[in-house]
Amino acid sequence: MFKVIPAVDLKNGKVVRLRQGKENEITFEAENPVEIAKNWVKSGAKVLHVIDLDGAFKGRLRHEKIIHEIVKLPVEVQVGGGIRDFKIAERLLNIGVKRVILGTLAVSKVEEVRRFAEKWSGRVMIAIDSRSGRVAVKGWKEVSELKPVELAKLYDDLDVSFLYTNIDVEGLGLGIEREKVEEIVCSVRNPVYVAGGISSVDDVKVIKEAGAAGVVIGYALYSGKLKFKELLKLET
Q1: Which residues are tagged catalytic?
Q2: Which pLDDT tens digit goes with each residue over 47-96?
Q3: Which pTM does this prediction carry?
Q4: Residue 60 burial (CB count, 10 A)
């Protein structure tokens, strides 16, 4: 089933949205992440996408206590941001996180991530963060030599899912780049979730029609540009 997933991005103990993932370009900020998560669940969210932005920038998870509280809610929770240690990833999975999202590790330690994904079948999501056609790592501060499809192909024979984020349009609310979404979705057999630039119901419909498994939306929901209840109608 196609899923519409609200993003809960954590920075300094708050929920924030950043423009193109830039650490100091905050476009939205709110207190009490656990209450915000509860409200998404009450509104009908079946999955929450929780990212520790401080962890992504600093290389170490910083909001584990908040994540623990969110995981207690009656909803699937996928977590990423600063998970660059397999022990931390395993700890999150053991407390009830449904999927851990691995980005930098997925590029720098391919064989180790493959073994981890085999051990935790179906519970690893590979982050494919694209900037100017290349995969970005370390909180999107560095760009690797890999192209998005090349990274996906390294893991597509395993039971994983993919999260494709187009950084070039992330947090701008200006819409998606359809061709890039279609390219990654059509290149792999595993489920692909799409984030970045989603700003209209038509964007979501295009992503669904491309064959994606779902969307992760932040800015457009928090700004009120999109209504979550309306998007839930597309979950069929």
Answers
A1: 9, 129
A2: 999 999 887 777 677 888 999 999 999 999 999 988 988 999 999 999 99
A3: 0.93
A4: 16
